[in-house]
Design goal:
The complex is a heterodimer of chains A (99) and B (467). Chain A has 99 residues and is an all-beta fold. Chain A is 0% helix and 42% strand. Chain B has two domains: 401 residues, no CATH class; 54 residues, no CATH class. In chain B, 55% of the residues are buried. Classes of the chains: A mainly beta (99), B alpha/beta (467).
């Protein structure tokens, strides 16, 4: 488990760029919780941190592929494969991420 | 839009007539949030669709024109009518269609064709569908065939589930534009196990000057179903260019089979910038049969995403570019599962200063074991000035793949012509026979009436009669 940020640093539906195990990840705060995923669209590797999220999904800015924030599964083409997601734990306002 | 440089002979393009436009029909030119709200208000749409449109508008503004393919720099997006308010509502009975619209479609042969051999017809005139019908036997089997606008009202859950999932608005600038201002198009739903044995046809007609037509088609074929959909397009000739930017999304579920046939015969002042894509699931088959004869500039690459084991995709296309035209077309096949197969057969013909381009992508992902790919691109040059380009792109990331790729460019030789003429045919007829022989592998896949129409159109092109 790795400390990433304080909860107060996150803004609703706005991407928060970070690194986990030296790899770029992105956090999204939504009305359904905080989600962490690899910062890379599985279609053409464009950073998902360029996009705003809804409560349940994020769409890549480059070609519009939509991913489920919880599972990372693509919900629309042209992406075919899921994006890796991470476990998020919040303790006393601090956000921790693990595999 | 700026005036088109290439001259168009009005009297020679069979479908180049136009009707008087409605005096109530035109909103302001140009694209803005106000126009999008006006479209959504007119259609009395649910909020979710209005939001999809508004998001797409922002995406459209943020995206640039493609820096490849046909030169689109002359398009002035502020000089286009994005929506024309129809005089009348959608009709189910041909007799109720307004006389001027009815006359147009009768001149194009639509009602006659429906009576003879079609399962259903949808006719779109500028922005809106004016006529939609489906024979009762198919309604009784649960088939749905109506305008996409009507489907948003009657089947919102199905539309919401699939709309934009095959082609998201951010896919490209013109998909975003279509999503922002779409109007009309067909919604087709084929229930599980139903085979619609005769074609469903849509006919798209641009009538007004500086008009943009942005139909949106969504086809869902449930498990084991079979259907064939045919679309035709024509427009009048004006000195000012028009824009046609459609989006077609198709979902072919397990074991289903869809053939989507297009006979595109826009007049030579139309930018035809279309995104067509299908998602094919387990053992499904998707076939695109695509004949591009008209337009000023076309960019169109029907694609199939082969998402589950055993899926098959085919694109069979013909492009005929004559003076002043650039038809940049092709196909995309994305293999994302084992035991998938694809076939691309592209035939292009160039005449005069016409330019035909084949641009294709085959992508085989590492998971797609035992994939079979066959690509054939043939180009025929009819004279010394015509041009043909081929840009095949093969990205094969799986060693267990069989790929065949053939490409040939040929010129009609004096010897060939002499041989055919020695059998009694005159010059134009001899050339037409050679060209018809060239496209025969694709023409034979069309229903007979369409094959005859295609041959007739090609003959007209050969005579310089079209454009």
């Amino acid at each position: 488990m790795e400390y990433i940020a304080d909860e107060s640093q996150l803004i609703l539906h706005t991407p928060f760029k970070a690194t986990y195990k030296e790899k770029p990840i992105v956090l999204f705060k939504t009305n359904k919780g905080i989600f962490a995923m690899e910062d890379r669209c599985s279609h053409e590797d464009f950073p998902l941190s360029e996009s705003l999220s809804s409560d349940t999904e994020v769409s890549c800015q480059l070609h519009g592929s939509t991913f489920d924030l919880a599972s990372g599964k693509p919900k629309s083409l042209p992406a075919l494969f899921p994006v890796k997601t991470y476990q998020v734990t919040i303790t006393e306002g601090k956000i921790f991420v693990s595999d | 839009m700026q005036s088109q440089k290439n001259s168009i002979k009005k009297e020679e393009y069979t479908y180049g007539f136009h009707d008087k436009e409605s005096k109530f029909g035109k909103p302001l030119k140009g694209l803005s949030k106000e126009v999008i709200h006006m479209i959504s208000d007119r259609k009395n749409e649910p909020d979710w669709m209005r939001e999809i449109r508004l998001r797409a508008y922002d995406i459209f503004l943020s995206k640039s024109l493609p820096d490849w393919g046909a030169d689109l720099s002359e398009i002035d997006f502020n000089d286009i009518y994005y929506y024309i308010v129809p005089d009348e509502k959608l009709k189910r009975n041909w007799d109720e269609v307004p006389v001027k619209v009815k006359q147009t479609f009768e001149r194009l042969g639509i009602p006659e064709a429906e009576r003879k051999f079609l399962a259903g017809v949808e006719a779109q005139y500028d922005s809106e569908s004016v006529y939609s019908s489906l024979k009762e036997e198919w309604i009784n089997l649960g088939v749905i065939f109506m305008s996409t606008d009507e489907a948003v009202q009657k089947y919102p859950d199905i539309v919401k589930q699939y709309f934009g999932t095959v082609i998201p608005s951010a896919d490209n600038k013109f998909a975003a534009l279509n999503t922002a201002v779409w109007s009309g198009g067909s919604f087709v739903y084929i229930p599980e196990g139903v085979e619609v044995k005769i074609p469903l046809q849509a006919y798209f007609r641009i009538n007004a000057k500086s008009m943009g037509q942005f139909e949106r088609t969504l086809i869902i074929a449930e498990k084991g179903s079979i259907a064939q959909y045919v679309e035709g397009c024509t427009s009048p000739i004006y000195e000012i260019n028009s824009l046609h930017s459609a989006v077609v999304e198709i979902i072919v579920n397990e074991g289903a089979r869809i053939r989507y046939t297009t006979i595109q015969n826009w007049s030579k002042n139309v930018y035809n910038l279309v995104t067509k894509r299908a998602a094919a699931y387990k053992n499904a088959t998707m076939e695109w049969v695509d004949a591009n004869l008209g337009s000023y500039k076309t960019m169109k690459y029907p694609s199939v995403y082969l998402l589950e084991e055993g899926a098959r995709g085919e694109v069979l296309s013909i492009a005929f570019a004559t003076d002043g035209q650039h038809i940049d077309s092709g196909a995309k096949m994305i293999h994302a599962a084992p035991n998938t197969s694809s076939l691309i057969t592209s035939k292009s013909i160039s005449q005069g200063t016409g330019r035909a381009t084949y641009r294709g992508l085959v992508k085989v992902h590492p998971v797609a074991n035992n994939t079979k790919v066959n690509v054939t691109c043939d180009a025929l040059l009819l004279d010394k000035t015509s041009r043909s380009d081929t840009y095949p792109d093969m990205q094969i990331d799986n060693a267990d793949t069989a790929v065949q790729h053939e490409a040939a460019v040929s010129k009609v030789s004096e010897e060939q012509l002499f041989y055919v003429m020695s059998r009694g045919l005159k010059g134009d007829d001899a050339m037409a026979m050679i060209v018809n022989g060239f496209i025969e592998p694709i023409a034979k896949l069309l229903p007979l009436e369409y094959a005859i129409e295609l041959n007739r159109l090609i003959q007209l092109e050969m005579e310089g009669s079209v454009g």
